[in-house]
Design a protein that fits this description.
The protein contains 15 helices and 12 strands. The chain is of the alpha+beta class and 401 residues long.
Amino acid sequence: MAWRNIWRNPRRSGVLISAVAAGIFSFLGLTAYMAGFSMQWLDASIRLQGGHILIAGRGYYANPEVRNLIKDVRPVEDALADIPGASALGRLEVLGIVNSAAQATAVQITGVNPLQERRNSPIPGAITAGVYMDEAGEGLVMGAALADKLQLQLGERAVLMVNDLSNELASTAVRVIGLYESASRSLDERVVFLHRHDMQALVGFEDHEVSTVSVFLDRDRDVEGIARQLRAVLADPSMELLTWRQRLPMIVSMESMLGLVSILIVVILFAAIGFTLINSFLMVIYERMREIGIMMANGVAPGQIRHLIWLEAGFMVLIGVAAGSLLAFGLIAWWSRTGLDLSAFAEGLRSFGADTIVYPRLDSASVLLGYITVMIMITLAVAWPAWKASRFRAVDALQHT
C-alpha cells in the first residue's frame, strides 16, 4: 500500500525523490572533492615543509642557526634503512641573501642531494623553465616568482651571501639553471636550491654534516609509531625529532577545519531535505484524512498508520538515494582518473598551497556517515506527520472533506 501511495501523486513524489537525489549527489560530490583536496593539499604541504618527520640538531627548528646541525647523518640514514616505506632527504639550510643586478632579498639557501630530491621532493617535477640540477652539476634553482622579483633570467648569475660556520661573510656567484613553480607561492619567493657540495664549500660544512633530515613515509598514519621507533634507535640528545603535527600547527588546524566543513555540509543538505519531507507529508496526511479515518474505522491500529507513512517516505528516499548515488559514483570515478581542473582559480589555490588539479576520492567512513544521517533524517522528519496521522479520531476524519 505504501508503494502504491507513492504513485498516486507522481508529480509530488517526483519532486521529493529529485530533492533527495540532488541532496545525495551534492553530498557525495562535495565529500569526494573535499577528501581529495584535503589529501592532496596535506601531502603537498608536508612534502614542501620538511616531510612527515623532521630530524635536526637540537634547537634548530626554533632557531635555524647555521651551527645547529647534525654532525653525522650516517646513523640517521642507517636507522631509516631498516624502516619499510621510509625515505630520507638530507639538506643543508642556511638563511642568506641573494643579489641580482637589480636588487637583493633574503632567502633560505638549501643545499640538496639531487638524486634524493628527485625521489622525494615535488620541486624537481615543478620546473617550468630550464632544468633541475643533476648529480654532479652546478647551478642555482629558484622560484619563478623570485626570479621575476630579482629581474633574473635563465643563464644569468646571482650572488649568494651567507654567514659561514666561522661567522664570516661568505659569497659566491652562481648561474641560474632552473625556475620552478610549486603549489606554494610563498615557498617560490623565499627558497633557492644549490647542490649540496657547493653549499658545503660555501658555508664550511663537512661531508656528513646536514642541517635537517626530512623523513617521508608511504602512509601518514604510521607517523607517530615510526617517530617513537626512531627516537628509541637514535637516542641522541644532540638531535631533535618532530612530526609534522608538532611542527605545523596551522596545517593541523586547517585539516580539522576541513573536517568540520564536511560535517556542516551534511547538516545543511540533509536539514533542507528533512524540512521538505515534513512539509510534503503534512500535506499528504491532510489530503488523505478521510481515507485514514476509513482505515481506522475498519480496525487499522494507530501504529500501523505510522508504519505506513514511514514506509512511504522510506521508499521515496531509497529511490532518491539510489539515483543520486549512481550518478555521483559515475562522475567521481571519472574525475578520479582525469582530475578536476581548477586552473581558473590557480592563483588563489597556490596562495593556499594547493594544486590546481584535484582528484576526488570517496572516503568510506564519510559515505557511511551520510547514509546513516539520511536514515536518521527520514525517521525524524516523518515522525511528526506520522504521529499526527495516527492521532486522528475516526469520526472526525470521516467527516473531513
